[in-house]
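Q: Hi! First time doing this. I have a protein sequence and I read that you can turn it into a structure. Is that right? Here it is:
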Amino acid sequence: MFEKNEYSEQNLFNLQSIMKRSSGMRQFSVVFLLFILFTTGCSGIGSASMEKSDNSQDYYMLRSASGTAAKQSPAVPSNYKVLESQADLLAQKPDLDPARQERLVVYNGVINIVVERISDSISMIEKAVVNMGGYMQEMTSNSITLKVPAGKFQDAIAEAEKLGEVIKRDIKGTDVTEEMRDLNIRLQNAEQARDKMLSLLEKADAVEDTLKVEKELERITETIELLKGKISFLRNKISYSTLTVQFNSPIPQEDFTFAAPFIWVHALGSELTRPAGSAASQGSSVFNQSKFSLPDGYIKYFENKKQTRAMSADGVMIYVHKEKNYQGGNIDFWSSLVHRMLVEQKTIRITKQPELKLKNKKDAVMFVGSKQVGSKQYGYLAAIVPTKQNVYIFEAWGPMQEFEKDRVKLEEAVISMRLN
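A: Yes, that's right. Below is the predicted 3D structure, encoded as structure tokens:
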């Protein structure tokens, strides 16, 4: 556009000759000369060029070789700007090259790292990403998936790689620019269609027409909400990159679970999660080793020398049994061990642990708590009464509402225990 016109000087000479021959055509020649100067882009003395911006109403004029701006032609709009060179004018042009436009990319990374302590490494990388403004999306025993702000993605990778030796590193970027553009166009079209439907709805007179327009309007509105949801989801994927860190370790990671050499201790609370046996047997012998007063509303459906079982019609169960005691097995030892097993292994939440005395003056300790079993909350009670030869255990459990209703009666049954 701004190349030198090889005919410009010749045209100027011819016009000047015409002007000398006819004074009557002088005014016409001056106007025509200015037109030639503005349209041919001549680069000689006194020449100038004018160009309109593609995306505005501004006009740009090159400064003449003499350093002054060309005089404005009456045919040229007044909102032009004087520029120093063609480079300045080209700089006013928008860059329409799609390859140079900012691309929308979703990044996903997977890193495999060998570390010493997997649990510690998971905690460290999670804390680092949270401090960056990210969050944990998923976690297993040896891996963690994190959502990281896109601008902090490389920083998160660097923090992860500090934890150990990287054995695999996969980073993938997915360009979603066209997908986002398509969704925005579809949303714009849907919103325009909705506006038209609203306009038709205002003009509709017949009930039948109104119903048809409302039905179409409902469909378009659903489409708009769906598109907005997809756009929001895609924006979140662009804003937050996904980083999955998988850990391996040559060192065994399993923590050894504490195991006591007393089977009955590990069995405490186990029957909360399994149904009671369907078979019932009433022994004829008297339970001489341990006996308690049966609460009102309960039946004793099983008994032998070592255990007694009873239940209420509402499903609250009682299980009393005795186990062998050992040298040093006092009430402090057994209460500490039982509390640990109930909490750590059976995940029973202990809310009360009172010490009490039985009617025969024996010391006892009682644990009262609860446990979630499926969709229901269950109440649980256990009392431990050690003697020199034996340890007597009273357990009761049932649905929380029924258990709480009978809890006073259950505690009275504990206190009534008679030991031989």
